[in-house]
């Protein structure tokens, strides 16, 4: 605490000019109020902020698309933040709206992640937790995806990205949306692997006469590390890719809400996962109220493997939805490496210029 206080005079505290959410709402409200106003024939007649008034904001120029929002910048003689907005403010809103389909499909793509992590602990409690003479607590398995993530991240950044960069010409080896898609594909594979491992665990329990047992099933808990490895790939690709996608596309004034949007996506995904469990149980229950896939505390009598397959199918559908929107998204910033004019290679000092 003392070290933190001692550094206060050296901190740069850049006060926000206004709330990004407020600016978006102002554009939507102003455009709705002036929905019957005609757009000028010359776009230069729309209101734009000057360089002096911009402050820390990035001045953006008008683009095609969402023309109805341009009406928020039409000067009708009335002033006020909820009546007249600048083109920069309108373009900030357009950028966010163009990314909304990606965010919505990402919500569906992340649903299996918390579910697999939660159910894995319950599965591990029933399995053989021995590692030589030691007994490993299933709860400690959560460290495995973290370790995998650390290793995969180093391998990805140091070896895979430079290799792909030479082939594709992109700074990150692949585009941000391609990186996110790889993560969603890994989620599907992880869910399928989880279903296969769970089916194998239940088969061993039946063959060993341990269907009613809650522990001691003779199958190693380390079979669960396969799905954890795949979840580590998800962390390195889609998690990081989604943040990089937002920060590279959003304007300077909107970057502050990037992490908030990301964690909102994770939160909504977790909530939808809980809802999916409730729906699956209700649909699969017998008339007497028993027999749901995930009812009870005995996984050996449940149908967790079928639930995993259901997740895999839903993830496949969400991946197709994501590919549909991602293939139609137009980047605001080109991610290609600019070749050096003399030798057609990237600069020798290690810096990378982006168009």
TrEMBL record:
Cellular component aspect of the GO annotation: membrane
Parts of the chain that traverse the membrane: 102-121, 133-156, 177-197, 217-248, 260-280, 307-326
Location within or outside the cell: Membrane
Key words of the record: Membrane, Transmembrane, Transmembrane helix
Protein's organism: Zea mays (Maize)
UniProt-listed InterPro entries: MFS_trans_sf, POT_fam
Keyword Membrane: yes
Database matches in Pfam families: PTR2
GO molecular function ontology, one term from the record: transmembrane transporter activity
Annotated protein name in UniProt: Protein NRT1/ PTR FAMILY 4.6
Membrane topology: Multi-pass membrane protein
The keyword Transit peptide is assigned to this record: no
Family per record: Belongs to the major facilitator superfamily. Proton-dependent oligopeptide transporter (POT/PTR) (TC 2.A.17) family.
């Amino acid at each position: 605490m003392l070290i933190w206080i001692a550094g206060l005079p050296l901190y740069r505290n850049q006060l926000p000019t206004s709330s990004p959410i407020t600016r978006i709402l102002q554009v939507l409200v102003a455009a709705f109020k002036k929905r019957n106003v005609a757009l000028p024939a010359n776009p230069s007649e729309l209101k734009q902020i000057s360089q002096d008034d911009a402050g820390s904001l990035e001045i953006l120029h008008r683009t095609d698309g969402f023309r109805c929002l341009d009406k928020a910048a039409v000067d009708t003689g009335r002033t006020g933040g909820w009546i007249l907005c600048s083109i920069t403010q309108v373009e900030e809103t357009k950028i966010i709206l163009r990314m909304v389909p990606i965010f919505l499909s990402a919500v569906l793509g992340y649903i299996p992640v918390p579910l697999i992590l939660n159910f894995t602990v319950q599965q591990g409690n029933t399995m053989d937790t021995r590692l030589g003479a030691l007994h490993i607590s299933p709860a400690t398995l959560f460290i495995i995806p973290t370790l995998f993530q650390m290793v995969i991240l180093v391998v990805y950044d140091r070896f895979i990205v430079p290799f792909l960069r030479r082939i594709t010409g992109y700074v990150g080896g692949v585009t941000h949306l391609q990186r996110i898609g790889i993560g969603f594909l890994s989620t599907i594979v992880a869910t399928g692997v989880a279903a296969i491992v769970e089916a194998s665990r239940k088969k061993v329990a039946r063959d060993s006469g341990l269907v009613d047992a809650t522990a001691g099933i003779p199958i190693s808990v380390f079979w669960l590390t396969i799905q954890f490895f795949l979840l580590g790939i998800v962390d390195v690709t889609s998690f990081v890719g989604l943040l990089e996608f937002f920060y590279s596309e959003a304007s300077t004034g909107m970057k502050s809400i990037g992490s908030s949007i990301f964690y909102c996506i994770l939160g909504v995904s977790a909530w939808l996962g809980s809802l999916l469990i409730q729906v699956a149980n209700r649909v699969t229950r017998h008339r007497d109220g028993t027999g749901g896939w995930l009812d009870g505390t005995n996984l050996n009598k449940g149908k967790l493997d079928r639930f995993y397959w259901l997740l895999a199918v839903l993830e496949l559908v969400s991946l197709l939805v994501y590919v549909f929107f991602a293939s139609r998204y137009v980047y605001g910033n080109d991610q290609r490496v600019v070749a050096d004019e003399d030798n057609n290679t990237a600069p020798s000092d290690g810096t990378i210029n982006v168009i």
